[in-house]
Design goal:
mainly beta, 1% helix, globular, 1 helix, 295 residues, 16 strands, Jelly Rolls, eight-stranded antiparallel sheet
C-alpha cells in the first residue's frame, strides 16, 4: 500500500451538510443513552460489556493479540471502558472490527472518539467507510487497483504525516478509492488523498470526536460527496464523486481499524484508543454531556 502523491485540499466549513441537522442525532440522547433505538442509527458500540460482540461485528481481526479494553474514556462519555488497539511490529499490524450492513444506505455517517498514545508515530491506514457488491463478510482488498464502478468504493479518514511534513500521527485526510480516480506515477491506482485546508493535526494524548460521511451519487452523475468533522466542526467537504456506476452498489460497510507497518514507522508498539462509535444515516455529532458530567 502507498499514499498518493497528489493531495486535493478543501476549505474548512462549519455547517452540517443537511438543513436542520446542525445539532445531530446525539443531541437528543445525553451521554448517548438510548441512541441505538433511533431509527436512523445502524450501529452503536460503547465497549461497556468488556467483550467483542460477534453479533454486532461481522468480522474481527487479531482479537487475542491486538484488541483489549481500557479505562480511559472521552470526557463526555457516560461509560467507563474503551477499546485499545495495539500494533506490535514483528508480531501483528494491529487489528480491526468490521461491520457489514444489510441493506446498505445511500448516505452513511460514522462517528467515533479516538485517542493516540503520546508516543504514537505514523500510521499506515485507519477507519473506513465504503461499499462492495456483491457483499461479503470481511473487508475486501484491491490496493493499487481502480474499482470498476459497479463493484466497490471506499474512503478512510486517516492521519497522514506525509514525508515528515506534519508531526506524528499526521494531518487528517481522506484516502479514497473510486472508479474515476487517476493513475499513480508507478502505473498503479493507489488511493487519492483529499486533505482539509488548513491542515488539521491531532494532538497525541487527548481525545477527539471524529465524524466522516459518504453520500452516494445518482447513477450517471458525479454528485457524490464526502465530509469530515472534528469535535463537531466540519473541516473538510469534497464533492463531485461518481462513487458508483450501477445499482445496487451503495455504502454498506464500516471498518474500525488500526493498521501499522514498518513502511511508515520503526516504533515497536503503536497504541490507539477508540470509544463511543455510532454509524447512522444522518449527521450524528459529538456526545451531548449528561447533567453533572465532568465536561
Amino acid at each position: 500500500m502507498a499514499w498518493a502523491a497528489v493531495v486535493f485540499a478543501a476549505p474548512a466549513a462549519a455547517e452540517a451538510p443537511d438543513a436542520g441537522a446542525a445539532e445531530g442525532i446525539a443531541s437528543k440522547y445525553p451521554g448517548d443513552r438510548g441512541i441505538a433505538k433511533d431509527e436512523r442509527v445502524l450501529l452503536h458500540e460503547d465497549f461497556e460489556t468488556g467483550r467483542i460482540d460477534r453479533e454486532r461485528w461481522t468480522t474481527v481481526k487479531n482479537e487475542a493479540e491486538a484488541l483489549s479494553f481500557a479505562s480511559e474514556v472521552p470526557p463526555a462519555s457516560s461509560g467507563t471502558k474503551s477499546l485499545l488497539v495495539t500494533a506490535t511490529l514483528g508480531k501483528n499490524t494491529g487489528g480491526h472490527l468490521f461491520r457489514r450492513f444489510k441493506p446498505g444506505a445511500k448516505r452513511m455517517y460514522a462517528r467515533y472518539y479516538v485517542r493516540f498514545a503520546e508516543d504514537c508515530d505514523r500510521i499506515h491506514h485507519f477507519v473506513r467507510l465504503g461499499g462492495d457488491w456483491p457483499p461479503v463478510q470481511w473487508p475486501t482488498g484491491g490496493a493499487g487497483e481502480r474499482p470498476r464502478g459497479d463493484d466497490r468504493f471506499s474512503t478512510g479518514i486517516e492521519p497522514c504525516a506525509g514525508w515528515k511534513e506534519f508531526a506524528p500521527p499526521g494531518a487528517w485526510h481522506f484516502y479514497t478509492y473510486w472508479c474515476r480516480m487517476k493513475r499513480h506515477g508507478d502505473g498503479r491506482y493507489w488511493g487519492t488523498s483529499f486533505r482539509p485546508e488548513p491542515p488539521v493535526v491531532p494532538e497525541r494524548g487527548r481525545w477527539y470526536c471524529v465524524e466522516m460521511a459518504v453520500t452516494c451519487n445518482t447513477i450517471g452523475r458525479a454528485d457524490g460527496r464526502q465530509a469530515v468533522w472534528i469535535d463537531g466542526r466540519k473541516v473538510g467537504d469534497f464533492d463531485g464523486f461518481e462513487w458508483r456506476t450501477a445499482e445496487p452498489l451503495d455504502c454498506n460497510f464500516f471498518l474500525l481499524m488500526l493498521y501499522v507497518t514498518d513502511r511508515w514507522t520503526r516504533h515497536p508498539v503503536t497504541r490507539v484508543w477508540f470509544d463511543d462509535v455510532v454509524v447512522a444515516t444522518d449527521y450524528i455529532g459529538p456526545i451531548r454531556p449528561m447533567a453533572g458530567n465532568r465536561q
